Write the structure tokens for this entry.
Amino acid sequence: MPTYAYHCTACGHGFEKFEKMSADPSPACPHCGQRAQRLISGGAGLVVKRAAAVPSATPSTCCGGACHQH
């Protein structure tokens, strides 16, 4: 379930809710009770992880093989 950000135009209160995608897009403001508007967000970033380094066939004692002297 995503977290949505909301802004109440009546009182200016901002809040977030962790809810289903099918939830009401304009819930009641927890501060004043008026209807709030769901804000458009930039979305979640994409995280790309690199593969782990492959150990070299000849172990190095100085820099792990990064200096290419071995």
Q: What stands out?
A: The domain at 1-43 is CATH 2.20.28 (Rubrerythrin, domain 2). The first strand starts at residue 3 and ends at 7.
